[in-house]
What does this fold into?
Amino acid sequence: MKCSKCKEKAIAYLKPYRIALCKNCYPNFYLNLVSRSIKKYGILRKVERILACVSGGKDSSAMAFALKKLGYNIEILHIDLGIKEYSVKSKKVAEELAEELDVPIHVVELSEYGFTIDDVDVKKVCSVCGTAKRYLMNRFARLNGFDVISTGHTAEDLILFFFKNVLSGGIEWIPKLIPRSESSDGLIARARPLFERSEKENMLFVLSLNVPFVTDECPHAPRDVWKEIIYDIEIKKPGFKQNFVRGLIKLAKSVKVEKEWELKKCRICGETSSSDICAFCRYVEKFGRV
Ligand code: Q46
Ligand code: ZN
It folds into this structure.
């Protein structure tokens, strides 16, 4: 198979775009797609100070790399979750990426709060981990004057989030699917510049440019049947993920939520919370060693 642009050997055929691309032509094609999403949906602005959250996985590495190449003003945040060798490798990758991009890196250690993800002895470890990451990202961005937090969420992540929440009756979350939210009440603006990109597109980008990323999977990651279902649909209906996610954004913008959370300040840490004590501080109490 030959590259549709330069006739060199192609690394992949991208069905949704009906194009085959080689290692040299793919990165620009990908960067154009990311740039188009950012502009079309007003996801980021060049004047903003952006905190790019890098876990070390291919998606967040692709996000930080693409933003820097497109001329955005990023600094990297890595959260060390304390998941044995996985966290050691992830932190190393985030540091390598920062060095390669010549951008500042900040590392927040979850252990400084008295526990790590390996100490969490409940079934839904990922739910505790997700809360901890969101809390630490927001706190760091707020205390250090960042305008916006950028994450590597993909089209698959948004579709999974939608299915899981709608199936459990949680439609009040639908407005949160928008690719850019603004800062309010101590919550810093959030941006998902890769929301139209698939994991495969991100993987091809990091591989074609040798961007550092961890290949190991988190040992706590559960098997996700929904992800397999989404892949099956994409095989039978190429372009499904992109079309679905664009539809989701329209839905997210049009849904009016009747029940608004009453936002308070956590009595322990002072961060924005829907209850007197925020979920993170409750975890610190539950899992903390001190
Ligand atoms: S790091 Fe944390 Fe993931 Fe590991 S414990 Fe689950 S949520 S799987 S992105
Ligand atoms: Zn708190």
User: Anything to note?
Assistant: Residues 117, 125-126, 129-130, 218, 220-221 surround Fe4 H S5 (ligand 1) (CB under 6 Å). The CA atoms of residues 57 and 215 lie 7 Å apart. The mean pLDDT is 94.
